[in-house]
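I have a small job for you when you get a moment. Can you supply me with one protein entry, sequence and fold together? It will help me judge whether the discrete encoding reads sensibly. Write everything out right here, beneath this request:
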Amino acid sequence: MSTSAMSTPPAPSQSAGEEGSFFDNILTPGSSLNSTFLAILDTVFAALLCILLSLVWLTGSIHFVFLVLIELGLWGSVKWFVRELKAVKQAEAAQLKEPTESKKTS
């Protein structure tokens, strides 16, 4: 065996780097307001709802009805939390603008 073949690791593909940056983007603070992340989250919740509703239709089990209710509650709470987080960020931005505007008028 030659040493050159063992010493050079294979080059990572470009898609692996993109996946890494996607996960890095999700794990950074404040990324929950990223529109792409929110769209993916809504898609996942919608897919889960479709699966659970189809299981309710196929099985008629009351357990899946309760899982649908839990999923809807979770989806609604996530939407509410994101809306409140956006409102807080807007309030903070307005509060930071307010002192600088009062200094300009003085």
Residues 15-105 form one domain. DSSP finds four helices and no strands in the chain. The two ends are 79 Å apart (CA to CA).
